[in-house]
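Quick one, T. Sequence first:
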Amino acid sequence: MTSTLSRRRLLQTGAGVAGATALMPHWAMAQQAAINYWHTFTSQSEFSGLEAVMASFHASFPDIRVTQENIPNPEFMAKVTAAVVANSRPDVTMVASERFADLHAMGALIDLTDRLNSWDRRGDFDDARFASITDADGRIYGLPAFAFVPWMYYRKDWFDAEGLSAPTTYAEFEEAAIAVTDASQNRYGFSMRGGAGGQSFVIDVMESFGAPIVSNGEIGLNRDAAVEAVDWYAGLLTRHGAVPSSAPNDGFRQIMEAFQTGQTGMIWHHTGSFQDMASFLEPGVEFATAVMPAGPAARVARLGYAFNSLTSEANADAAWEWISYWGEPDAAVALLGATGYFPASSVAAADPRIAGDPLYAPASETLGFGGPPPSFPGYAGWSETSVMPLFQAVLIGQLTPEQAVDQMIDALEEAIR
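Structure tokens:
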């Protein structure tokens, strides 16, 4: 279905947004349209980026009212599922790559294939950008809003003082974490996300040791490689003490604050936290960025895309204008400027404001070898409710790596039945 709405693009990234909730953009049909948008932004920089996009959208479409609502990641799937069952869906929701299969299976998303095929910005996006939001029949259910490009931050001043370079392998990473740890000064080598949201790192480590979740179309785990991976990763805390003891409960905010306040010397995250880092530490002097280190079997970096998807037909034309607006290069650069989230658009990524910044070079390098996260029905639930708590149990000594991996394998087999 071709959109009947007009396009008038004017970026006003400096404009204020009252409360970041209800903004009124222009609709050519000269009638009010109200849409609600569910997203998973939580940090101040993310809200600043959202405000920038909403402000510029407001200038172009003052008759479409957008109401935003934050849904924390741990609650997201439960809330969307309840909304589908109760037929109280939002108009638009943000969809992480790994959640597509489950959302599609429950019929939560609207097919956007025809709209995308006639979109004037379609050529700005490589076909690969849509792979993790496309079903087996080739139907596309979302538009890439931005990319989660994983990388590592490290305390450049600490590393310089120790004569260390950014680690390129897990072995070098472990050595560096131990070298900069001084528990007597409450200083540790690595901010481990052993709490909420840390499951993706556990899975990436297992895959880096040679235990991919999906191999040749088959879903499963290589037990020996997975045990070795869990033992190594947990050992950063349990054997080497190179991680704060709070790690089993540390989520996003805790690991960020530990790094920003000088408690830890390395952290794994993605480009979306760059501006948060830069607000506490001086880029290129106190901290620097690096490509994720390589494991014994592979270098794994998951290029997760955040998509904006329609979840209701009620205000489909207005909702399409909102999600397609995120594809405008100036809007993408404005979001990156506030957050560090990398553009999904090839045109936006080539902007000199991005390509000319050496601190973004690791992200550009990662785009050359990174791949999408695993995605199959049951994956999101398995990773959140099995992988994460079982790894936490290893961290606190309740399970051995062998016991944890055996239970992960059993839970994975149950999840895909």
